[in-house]
Amino acid sequence: MAALLRSSRLLKCSPLGLLQISGTKRTGPPLRLLFSGPLGARGTGVCSRHISPVSGNASSRVWPYTVGCVRNYAVATEQKDEPSIAERPNQAQEFDFALARLDSSVRRTGRITKVQLNRIFQDICKKAYPSGNQALLLLRSCGSLMPEVPLEQRTELAHQVWEKLQELGTVYDVSHYNALLKVYLQNEFKFTPTDFLAKMEAAKVQPNRVTYQRLIAAYCQNGDIDGASTILGYMKSNDLPITEAVFNSLVTGHAQAGDIESAKKILTVMEGAGIEPGPDTYVALLNAYAGKGDLDNLKKTMEAADSAMCRLVDRDLMPVIITLAKAGHQEHIPHMLERFSHERAYVPDAMNLCLSLTTQGLEDTAFYILKNFPSLQNNPSLQSKDTIIEPHLGNFLLRHCVNIDMSPEKICRVCKELQESKLNTEPAIFTLNVALETQKTALSLALMKMLKELDLPIRPHFFWPLLSPHVKERNQAGVVELLKSMHDLKIEPDSETLTHYVYPAFADVEAAREALKDAGMSLESEGIFAAQVRSLALTNLAELHAMLSDPSCPVTDLSVFRGSLIVGFKKFSDVESMVKMIELLSKDPRFSRDGKETHNTSAFFLYHFIDHMSEREVHANKDKLRIFFNQLKDQKISVTPNIYRGIRRLLDSYQASELVKDVGALVNYGLESDALPGSGPESGGYALEKIGSRVYALEKKLAKRKSENQPLGFMLKQTIQSHAAEDNLVRALELKQEYEDEMLLPAYATLIGLCCRHDNVEEALNLKRELTRKDSSVTLDGNKYISLVNSLAKKDRIEEAVDLLKEMKERDVVLTDKNNTQLFHMLFSLANNGAASTVERLQDSIFTLGLAKPTTLLLSPLMTAYIKNEDLSGALEAASRCLKLYNKMVPVHGIMVAMVEKGDADLLQKAMEFASNERGEMAMMFDLFFAFLQTGRYREARKIIETPGLRARTTRISWFAAKCINSNQIEPLEQMVGMTEKLFDCDRDEMYSYLLKHYEVTNEWQKAVALWTKMQEENLIPRDGTLLLLAKILKKNGQEVPFDVSTMWYQEEEAPAEVKREAPTPKIEAPTPKIEAPKPKVEEGPSSKDPSFQSPIIALCKKNRAQEALKMFKEAKDSPFNAKSFNLLICVLLSEGSIKDAMAVKDIATSRIPEFQMSHAANDLYIITTTMKGQANDALERMKRADHMPSKLALTRLVQALGNSGNVSGIQEVEELIKDKVVNLPTMPVVTRTAIAHIKSGDVEGATEVLEAFYTNPDCESQPQGMPYVFNMVLEDNNEEALDKLSAMAERLANQFARYQPVSDLFLELLDADKVEDAKFMLARNNAVAEQTDTLVAYIFRKSRTPGQLGKIETLLSLIPDFAEKDVVNKHVMRCHINDKDFSSAKALYEEWQKSEGEIDTVSLKRLAVMYRKFGETVPFNEPQESIRFYELKEKAQKKEKAQKEAET
């Protein structure tokens, strides 16, 4: 084919001649294509018109799909060459989550960002396990889905993805090459089709129809009609169908070549070929006229499309606007905007249009479109949960303008226009925020000036992002310029700004002050003074002491510069000045909190100073510290005993106990101590085989017992039941007649049921009378009553049937769900006979008597009865009557189907109005759509589904698809799949799966192959389930699978057979002539040299059979093994705990591959496995040596293990390592594990200090969840010392800091440990515990979920009786009774609850009703109809909504 294309310039054949295809017909419905290519690209979207011979039957037609529809952007979750099961949670789930977010972004906005795509791409590359579907997803994302990225950068990114994934072992098939072609077209990338085909042939990938269609589009994009004609000739000679997409490309090609007339003639050629021009065809022609600025022909073409009933939606017209803007005909754009109908999807599409225009340098047009956005108030149809325009219209475009470095003048002008037009309330503030984030200095200053003019405040911290890079580079000139800008804006820098973002850029404070003076700043402000103190604390303690000692120095709180002073002390550059500063703090009341006890100030500072030092720093400055402490003693500086104990614990933890005696010399025991901061055995079939012999044996026993004058009742009942099982009514009645005096009551019930099955209603009634005469108190069950009613109704004895229903009410017969189903089948069988009046009378009686609640299921037979009688107006009236009487909307699908078949337009209109008024217009539209589909009115169905604003309803579509599959109606299903192609929010992968399920049942593999081709045309990424189903169909019929499926790798242990890439049938794929291009040399990697052992080992690893894989690996000896496989084997060994074997494999890998390194996942598994085996120190060493940050799970497990082993320093090392890393590790687990480590090592006071420091931190507003575990551990270990000190800490936090969570947690843990007296004592000292309603309710909620915990709840209620509403408490106590299966207590609570007139929640009622039935009692209340789970989820949603409303208020 490539060689043939190279000679295309020698061919002078017209494409018009090639397209005269005789004997064809159009099989696809009119296409309503949502634009799927890049905005502004001409004819690049491949639509799916299909030409088939007239003789072809309907079942062989291929249905239309489109390419790259944004809303059909499915998430690819398939994993090729997957890692071990243990590694998957750390890899596959992360990818699935990331890809799901990407998919969500595309569904909501129609676009993704380059940052999002790069992040996922880098993650996939790091894990080194890219699958074919992930590659497909990444490639397709490099096109029009990124309107914010220039076209050339998109193509570069696509090439980068292609090359990198190929290096990592991804095997590309034809779908990947087609995706790359699509990206080239969307990005208007110039390439040579012959070279592209040569690359495909070198990779042994066979092109398919989609490939040729896109190559034609590529030629036509450049106006090369000759090249396109060559491929057309090839396709025709190989019987490949010429689709509408080809014609659309030719329209574009002729227009690009400057031949507009030939472009117009293509439409005539299409009609001659039996293909009706679709929206894409008209859009291609509109683009041709737009490029010439021909407004008249633009209008005529749009009118022609309207007259041809080919509706152009807003998205179809958007690329025409781009063409007009590019060609310099902006004056025609208002005429195009007038054509927009502002549909539901208009806003996100228009946003992407604006972004694309701005990216291509057409920002004036973009802002013109933005200013013409519709108002949500004036267009309610645009309102949706995913679309918010006002009051922040244009923020997305302003951010994009900043990112592409648009001039500040233009951005400021746009901001002013947006604010003046009241389209955006604060455009300048938003743009300033973006500019500061991206550190755009000139733009930021311009926007600040604009804000100043608008009298809006400008804060000093606005300049921090701008100053930060200058400070890092010590660029004094840059800092001074920004200070001058601050002065020009009349903004005084505060102390934070000066300390962190000005002074560090200068050599000393004087130089900084001189720079401030040069910038025009006043040097007398408080901010500058505070900054000077901080700076001196960091650099010159002697000068700081001299300044602060001066009585004229302003009063300065220690908290202003304590952090800086600690950093200065840690340098130990001037020990003498350090002592002087401590002396000043100790004696000068200006630095004391209350102005009296000055010794506390210096003592607390000393503690904080030692606490902020690391172990290494303490040992490095041990001598200086000893001198420091001794000089403090000489100056008579003292500390309290409590502070001394805290410092001693710190020094002990630093392994510096020799300094303790020096600190001990400072203790003054006369000082007041202060707290530190801080079924049966037989199967049914077997029973049926034995039943005849069993009846014979029973009758023999019965005769024998009669001859012996023994009781016969029980034996007679068994015999009659056996005859009933054989359906032998005659013999059963004979036995009843023979042994009438011995008949037991259950035997009568069995005979009544058997008579009803045989429609012997008279005998059944006689038996019932006899039963009543024997015992009038006996009541038949619901099943027997319904059977009697059914038999009477069949005989038209309606009054007697109604009397039986009344008797059921009188005798309080309770109908179960099974009985309700029996009622439905009874009514439905009557309805099928057309007995409408009988059905209606029985329904009225059942519902009036309250035997069953009106449901849609029980009401629907009435509609069926009217439809059977062809009384459609009666059916509609009955539906209306049901709604009025029972407030239930019955399904109108059957009624509409009958009306459409009958052709009664007036009645159909009434049905539509009825459905629309009661269920909404959208539900009515789907009812009508399904009715047209089922009756074969496909043209009308298409008009319905193309209604603007219509959105997919997954449940309804699934229902109709299942109905078609179950009734074997394949044509309506195929039509529905084709028509919903452009339906908003339609899950295309699911639509394809419906057809594949049917093809699997009918074994039509040819249609399945055609469906796979259509998926590629639509640019759809199928889910794993769809691919597996398609592969199953092909394998079942002995066909080759044209794609990779992950499960194919390990279905067998031996190496799998090679999967070919060409399509399986010559009908779909024609043979390609030999390409005469030089083939590139492909080097074999180590994994391809000897696959005889490697693939089985990989298969064993994926089955988690680590030891078998290791054994095979050892047997392979020195055979080649690549790094990827080594990592896989190491991971699976670690996942089962074989650390020694895993490290042995790692050593072998290193010896064979010197540059080998364990993957991130393997390192994480090593940390997790070693911590589980109690080797936390080894795990910590591994973390230190690793060149990457472990996962959150690995870090959590490590911190837990270190805490349980009492390794405080280890946890501190972990904190130090992750301090500057982006790791989402919660703070509280680290704090609680540090406290546990202190306790385990015997340092209880250290634990209390850590916890107290956390709780007293004013920045910590959250209530942590880790404290109960600390208290529980202490109680389980019977650690009385720790319990006392933790209890004191909890009470101190409650009394002094109003932090009640710890004391509440301790109180509840004491209750859990059965230390009731201790709990009482704590409650007496801390009354506020009784007010912590949320915590206490959460406690009883947890306890109520576990059986046997009622005693704990009762104990709590005895101590705090009224902490919650009675209904809330009753709810959880009721759940305890139900979990404990204490029926009598549950009944008693229910009765008490009723007497108190409390409001019983629905969940409790449902649970209690289930319990009543289990114990065989009648439910004494109206049972909720839905499941327990339904009501639990409903209750949860209500609580969440309530919490959100409270948060908003």
What does this structure look like?
The relative contact order is 0.05. The chain is built from 75 helices and 2 strands. The chain is 64% helix and 0% strand. The chain has a two-stranded antiparallel sheet with strand order 1-2. It is mainly α and 1449 residues long. Mean pLDDT is 77; it is low at 1-91, 380-389, 672-691 and 1047-1092. Helix 25 (495-501) packs parallel to helix 27 (526-539) and helix 41 runs antiparallel to helix 42 (798-810).
SSE map:
Layout: H1 2-6, H2 15-18, E1 24-26, E2 51-53, H3 88-109, H4 114-127, H5 132-140, H6 151-167, H7 174-186, H8 193-202, H9 209-221, H10 225-237, H11 244-256, H12 260-272, H13 279-292, H14 295-307, H15 314-326, H16 333-337, H17 346-359, H18 363-371, H19 395-403, H20 408-420, H21 427-437, H22 441-453, H23 464-472, H24 476-488, H25 495-501, H26 509-518, H27 526-539, H28 541-549, H29 558-570, H30 575-587, H31 598-611, H32 615-620, H33 622-634, H34 641-653, H35 660-664, H36 684-707, H37 713-725, H38 729-738, H39 745-757, H40 761-774, H41 782-794, H42 798-810, H43 817-832, H44 836-848, H45 856-868, H46 872-886, H47 893-902, H48 905-919, H49 921-934, H50 938-945, H51 954-966, H52 970-979, H53 988-1002, H54 1005-1017, H55 1024-1036, H56 1091-1102, H57 1106-1116, H58 1123-1135, H59 1139-1152, H60 1160-1172, H61 1176-1185, H62 1192-1204, H63 1208-1218, H64 1227-1240, H65 1244-1255, H66 1267-1276, H67 1280-1297, H68 1301-1312, H69 1316-1325, H70 1333-1344, H71 1350-1359, H72 1366-1379, H73 1383-1395, H74 1402-1414, H75 1428-1448
